[in-house]
## 1
Amino acid sequence: MLTQEKPQQRNWQPIIKELQAALGTKNVVQRREELITYECDGLTSYRQRPALAVLPRTTAQVAIAVQICQKYNVPFIARGSGTGLSGGALPVDDCVLIVTSMMRQILSVDYENQQVVVQPGVINSWVTQTVSGAGFYYAPDPSSQIICSIGGNVAENSGGVHCLKYGVTTNHVLGLKVVTPQGEIVDLGGQVAEMPGYDLTGLFVGSEGTLGIATEVTLRILKTAESICVLLADFTSVEAAGKTVSDIISAGIIPGGMEIMDNLSINAVEDVVKTNCYPRDATAILIIEIDGLEVEVQASKARVKEICMNNGARNVTTASDLDMRLKLWKGRKAAFAAAGHVSPDYYVQDGVIPRTQLPYVLKEIEALSQRSGYRIANVFHAGDGNLHPLILYDNSIPGELEKVEEVGGEILKLCVRVGGSISGEHGIGAEKRCYMSEMFSETDLETMLWVRQVFNPQGLANPTKIFPTPRTCGEAARSMGRKEEKFTQISGVERF
Ligand SMILES: Cc1cc2nc3c(=O)[nH]c(=O)nc-3n(C[C@H](O)[C@H](O)[C@H](O)COP(=O)(O)OP(=O)(O)OC[C@H]3O[C@@H](n4cnc5c(N)ncnc54)[C@H](O)[C@@H]3O)c2cc1C
C-alpha cells in the first residue's frame, strides 16, 4: 500500500532542484501567489493550491517531470487550459501540476491523409484555423473551443455543437503519444483508423488524466461540406422543441448539430452578445445545422422546416452565408458565459438522456426549479440528448452552493432514471464521483479500477478523480465469493 507523506512532512527542496534542472528554473512555479492561477478549473467552487506547477515544452520534459514525481512519490495532475467543468484538473494539496500551456505547436499537417499532429496545449479552434484555408476542419467544437486545449479535450472526450453527426473527440483521435504514470513514453494507435489489438487510444480518451499525460495527438480532419445551412426555429413550448428534435431524426435527417435554448438563456445571450436574431419572447429556440451536398441540403432544409412548423414553430429563420451562420451560433456558444449576466453565480450540470425523453425530463426540471426556488436555464445539445441545465444562485449566501449541488444531483439521478448518463462531455472529475454508483455496479466500478491499476499502479496520476470511494481491487470478486486474487490497494491518496 502506498502511504503518502503529508505535505508538511515532505521536503520539496530536492524535488524542486531536480525539476528546475530538467525544465529550467522559470518553468517551475513555486511562489504561492503565482500558484493561485492553478487552484481551480472551470468548477470554481472547488479550490486547492498545488505545491508546484511545471511548464514543460516537450514530451521528454513531461517524462522527466513524471519520473521525478515517481521517485519522490508525489501525485501529479495534468492541466491544459483549466476550462474543465468537473474539477478534473483540480489539484490535491501536495501535488505537482503539469501544465501543457507551453506545448502549443502544430507538429505536422497531412492533407492527403486528412490528419494533423499537435502538442496537447494547442487550442481546439487553432486546428480548424490552421487547415480551413485548404478546405478542412476539425469537427469536435466545444463551446469553450477558443480557449480549451486538445489535451483537455482528449482527457474529457469532449463534445460540442457539431458532434451529433460527426461524433465526439474519441471519433477523431487516431493516435497518441503518452507519458505513462511510470514516466515511460508510449505510442497508442497510429495514423490508420483501425489498429489491431486492444483499442488503447479509445481507452485513453476520456480517462481524465488518470492513465498518463498525452504529449502528442494525431487528429483526423474532415473536408468542409459543399453546402451548410443553419435554421433557427422559434417555439412557444420547450416540449415542442424537444419533440421536433426526435421528429427530425426519425425522418432520417442527421443534422450536423441541433441545439435548444430556453427563454432564460435566450434573454441572457441577447443581453450580452446582442445577436438580435434570437426572439426574446420565444419559450425555446431550436438551432439546426444541415450540411452536405447542395442538393441534399436544400431537400433537408425544406423537410426540417416543415417538421418545425408541424410542431408549432412560430417562425423558422434560415441562413446559408457564413456571417449569418456564425451569428446564429455565436449566441449559443456564449450561453454559459451569458448566464453570469443574469445571476451572480451559476452551476452547470451535464447529463444525458435518451432523446425521446426530452419533453418529460424538461418538465421534471421545471418542476424541480419550482420546488427548489432556483431558476434553471436550459441550454443543450438536443440532438445528443446532452442536457446542460444552468442552476442560477448566489454563492455569497452561506449554504447556497450545497443546496444547488443537491439540485444538480437530483437532475443527474433523473437522467439515470430515464436511461441516461451522469455525464455527456464534462467528465466526472472531482465533482461527480459520488454519483458514479447511481450508474455503475460495484463490479463495474471495480473493473474500471483494475484498468487504472494497470496503468497507474501507485495512483499518482490525478488521484481522487472519477471514483467514489477508496476501494481495493478484488472487493467485488470477493463479495461474489470468488477465490481471492492478489491485489494491491490502488493508493493511499484516494482517501477523501
Ligand atoms: C464556457 C465553457 C463552455 C464549455 N463547453 C463545452 C462543450 O461544449 N463541450 C465540452 O465537452 N466541454 C465544454 N466545456 C468544458 C471544457 O472546456 C472541456 O472539458 C475541455 O476539454 C477542457 O479542456 P482544458 O484544456 O481546459 O482541460 P483542463 O480543464 O485543464 O483539464 C481537463 C482534464 O483533462 C486532463 N488533462 C489535461 N491535459 C491533459 C493531457 N495532455 N493528458 C492527459 N490529461 C490531460 C486534466 O487532468 C483534467 O482531468 C466548457 C467549459 C466552459 C468553461
Note: The radius of gyration is 23 Å.
## 2
Amino acid sequence: MKYYMPVRVYDEAQCVSKHKEEIASYGNKALIVTGRSSAEKCGALGDILSALKEYGKEYAVYNRIEENPSVETIMDASAYGIAEKADFVIGIGGGSPLDAAKAIAFMIHRNSDNPDDLYDASLPADALDVIAVPTTCGTGSEVTGVSVLTVHAKNTKISIPHKIFPKLALIDGKYLMSAPHSMIVNTAVDAFAHMSESYLSKKADVYSQSAALTGMKLWAEVKDVLAEEREADAEDYAKLMRASTFGGIAIAQTGTSIPHALSYILTYDQKIPHGKAAGYFLGRFIAFANEEDQKAILKAAGFASADELNAFLNKLFGEYTVPQETLQRAYDTVSANEVRMHGSRVDMDKEKLRAVVNL
Ligand SMILES: [Fe+2]
C-alpha cells in the first residue's frame, strides 16, 4: 500500500488569521487566483490580504477564473502572474479557482506561454508553491494534486497529467456561510460522489476508504441541512467543509470513477453544475456495486437503501431531464474508455452503463 498526501492541513475556525505568518512565508509576491466575487463576499480574500499586508508581502489578484476554467484562462492568468513576477500562488474559492491555481503555478514556474505544456506528461510537475483556501464544500482540491480544465478543442473537461498538491490547505467553515443554498447542495453532492466513487475504486485501500467513510459519516450528520429541514449552524458548515476535505484525501489516492467521467459531458454540453451532474448518475452507479460495498456506503451515509439515496438526491435537485443527445455522448465517451469502465469494483459492462446513464 502507498499513501501520499503531502498537504499541511489547518482545519479550524479563523485558520487564515491564526496561520498568517506561515502563509506569508511562502514568497515575496502572491498571485491570488479567484472567481469574480465569492472570495471577496465570503471574507476569505480579505483575510488573506490582511495576512499578506501584515507581513509586508506584495500581491496581485487575478479574479477572472470562470466555472470549469479553460486552458485559455490558465494561459491568461499565467501571463499575468509572470508579468507580475509572482513567486507563489494562493487559490481561493471552489474547485475552479483551486484547480486553476495549480495549473497556473505550473505554467508560471515554467515561465511558459505554450499551452501544450499543460497536457505534456513528459514534463516535470514542478510548480510554484500553492496555498488553497476552499470556500465551497465539494472539490477537495485543497488536498489533491488534481487540476481539471476545460479543453474546448475536445469539447470536454480533462485532468492535466501533472500532480500538483498545494503546500497548505486552510479550511474554515465560516467561508461557507454566505454561499447560496444551491451551491452548498451542488458541492456537497460532489463531495459525496468523491467519497463513494473513491470507496468503490480498484485503487482504494484501507487508507483511502477510511477517509471516504469518515467523510460520509460527517456528511450524513448534515444531510438534513442539505434537505433544508433545519438551519445550518457554524458546526454544520465546519462538517460540510471537513467532509469535502476527506473526499479529497480519498480521491487523491484513487481518482474518481464513472459518475465523474459521465458528468464532464453534462457540464460541458448543458452547463449543469459539476456536483449536480455527478449526482445525476451516482445513485444508479452505487446500485450496481456489490452488496458489501453498497452496504458500507449506505450505512456510513445514513441511507437504508440505494432507492432511499436516489430519492434523497432527487429531492435535493428536483426532477429534471437531460437531453437525450447529451446522455448519448456521455455514454459513448465513457463506454469507449476501458480504463474508466473497469477502474472500479463495480462490475461494469455496456448494458449496465446504459442504465447508469439513464438512456
Ligand atoms: Fe468532483
Note: Strands lie at 8-11, 29-33, 58-62, 88-93, 129-134, 148-151, 156-159, 168-171.
## 3
Amino acid sequence: MIETRLIDGKAFAETLRARIASDVTAFHAATGVKPGLAVVLVGEDPASSVYVRNKGRQTLEAGMASFEHKLPAETSQDEVLALIATLNADSSVHGILVQLPLPGHIDAQAVLATIDPAKDVDGFHVVNAGRLAVGLEALVPCTPLGCVMLLKDTLGSLAGLEAVVVGRSNIVGKPLAQLLLREDCTVTIAHSRTRDLPGVCRRADILIGAVGRPEMIRGDWIKPGATVIDVGINRITGADGKNRLVGDVAFEEAQGIAGAITPVPGGVGPMTIACLLANTLTAARRLVG
Ligand SMILES: NC(=O)c1ccc[n+]([C@@H]2O[C@H](COP(=O)([O-])OP(=O)(O)OC[C@H]3O[C@@H](n4cnc5c(N)ncnc54)[C@H](OP(=O)(O)O)[C@@H]3O)[C@@H](O)[C@H]2O)c1
C-alpha cells in the first residue's frame, strides 16, 4: 500500500510570505519605493469582505502598502471605471485587484479590461492571458501559480508527466493548463462534457480538481502514486448537522492510492494570497525598473 504524503500548502505559503517580506525590505532599501496593492470591493458580499480583510492584513504584514476601496453595492459601472483609471495613474499603486463577483449591473469583463495590464496582479486581463498562452512574460493568475509551486516542490521537474486538469474556467483551469504546458507536461483539460471522466483521470500522474463539486473525484479515479491537487472549496453539511469545507476529491478514499495530495482546507487556498503578494512585488519591480 502506498503511503500518501500530505502537501502542506499552509506551511509552504507561510515560508513564501516570509521570503516576499524580506524581498520587499530589500526592494524598499534599494529604490525607496514600497510595493502598493489596491483592492476594490463593490457591495457587501460576506465571503468577499473576509477575503479582502485577509488580503489587506497579509499585504501589510509583507511590508507593502495596502489601499482598500470599499464602494456601496449601488455604485455605477462608470464610477468603478473612473476609480480604476485613477489607480492606473497612481504611481504608489503597483497592483490592482477587483474582488469578484461584482454586482449584476456591472460588466466584470469591462472592468477587468480597464486595469493596466502591468498592474493586473490577478492576471485576468486578456493581455496577460494572451501573453501566458504565447509563452511571454506575464502576470499569472494566483491560484494556478500556487498549484504549480506546490507541484514543483513535491515532484521537482514536471517534464513529461501526464497532467489532467478537471475544470476549464478562465480563473483556474485554463491558466493552470497553460502553466503545466510551460513545465513540459502533457496536458489534458477535462470538463462537464468529457466522456469517461474516471478513465481520463486514471491516466494522470498529476490530477487537478478545479470543479466546485464536493468529493466528485473518487479514490478509484486516481492512478496509484499520482500527485493530486485539490482546488475545490465546497461547504457541506455533515451528518452531525455541522458545516465543513471539502474539496473536489474524496480525500479519505485517496489515502493509500495517491502519492501525495493537498488537503482542503490548508492546501491550495493559502497559496492564493501568497501568490497575490508575489505578483504585486513582481509588478512593482517591473514598474519601478
Ligand atoms: N483560492 C482557492 O483555493 C480557489 C480559487 C479559485 C477557485 N477555487 C475553487 O475551485 C473550484 C472551481 O472554481 P472555478 O472558479 O474554476 O469554477 P467554475 O468557473 O464554476 O468552473 C468549474 C469547471 O468545472 C467543470 N465541471 C462542472 N461540473 C463538472 C462535472 N460534473 N464533470 C467535469 N467537470 C465539471 C465546468 O465545466 P464546463 O466548463 O463544461 O461547465 C467548469 O469548467 C470552486 O470550488 C472554487 O471555490 C478555489
Note: Residues 143, 166-169, 171-173, 190-194, 197, 210-213, 231-234, 268-269, 272 surround NAP (CB under 6 Å).
